[in-house]
Every structure is written in C-alpha cells, then in structure tokens.
C-alpha cells in the first residue's frame, strides 16, 4: 500500500469520486462538457494528494495539497452548475459538497 492510500483525506476523496459515475450517467447527452469537467476535477483532487504525499520537501508537498484543494473547489463548482441545470437534487448537491469540504479541511491540516 502506498502512503497516500493511508491518508483519510485520500480515502474520503476516493469515496466521493466513486459516486460520480453513478451521478452523471443519468445526465442528458448535451451535458457531456460538464460530466467530463467534473470527472477530471475530482480525479485531480486524488492525483494531487497522491503526488503531494510522495514529495519530500514541505513546500513541494504543500503546493500539491493546495492544488488538490483548488480541484475540490472546482468539483464543488461543477456541482453548483449541475444543480442550477437541474441535473442533481439539492440534497445530493449538499451531500457531495459536504464531502468535498471535509476533504479540503483535512488537506489544510496536512500542510
């Protein structure tokens, strides 16, 4: 097992990412642009946590964790757009945003 796989924020982000395909599969074909952006943003959270945790320098690690936080914010914005377009429910939006916010809070502690 890699070290990043032991991080609680990575586990939480992965659990959130696992939900995305089930959510977007019901979206109409014209919303592919948002589906693609959402999948890439949530993947970026995970990829940057892993890369940051693999870095040895404190500043280098912090930079990747900051990028992961920004990708979580981007994912949250995708959720906002999906809600505005009635692609997801208010409760689903709140739940997903809550999970992302937990990830962000954990990432701040990893600095």
Topology:
Blueprint lengths: L7 H17 L7 H22 L4 H27 L5 H21 L1
Helix pairs in contact: 1-2, 1-4, 2-3, 3-4
CATH architecture: Up-down Bundle
Sheet with the most strands, sense and barrel status: none
Proportion of residues in helical segments: over 70%
The run of helices and strands is HHHH
Number of DSSP strands?
A: 0
Q: What global shape is seen?
A: elongated
Mean pLDDT: 96
Under CATH at level 1, the class stands as Mainly Alpha
- CATH T-level fold name: de novo design (two linked rop proteins)
Rg of Cα set: 14 Å
SS-based class: mainly alpha
What's the quick description here?
By secondary structure, the protein is mainly α.
Core attributes:
4 helices, mainly alpha, de novo design (two linked rop proteins), 111 residues, single chain
Notes on the structure:
It contains four helices and no strands. The protein has a single domain, classed as de novo design (two linked rop proteins). The chain starts with 7 loop residues before the first helix and ends with a helix. It is mostly helical. It is 78% helix and 0% strand.
């Amino acid at each position: 097992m890699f070290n990043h796989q032991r991080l609680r924020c990575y586990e939480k982000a992965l659990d959130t990412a696992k939900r995305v395909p089930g959510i977007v599969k019901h979206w109409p074909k014209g919303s592919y642009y948002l589906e693609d952006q959402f999948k890439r943003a949530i993947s970026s959270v995970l990829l940057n946590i892993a890369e940051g945790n693999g870095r040895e320098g404190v500043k280098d690690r912090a930079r990747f964790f900051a990028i992961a936080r920004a990708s979580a914010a981007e994912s949250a914005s995708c959720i906002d757009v999906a809600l505005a377009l009635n692609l997801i429910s208010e409760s689903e939006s709140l739940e997903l945003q809550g999970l992302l916010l937990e990830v962000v809070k954990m990432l701040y502690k990893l600095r």
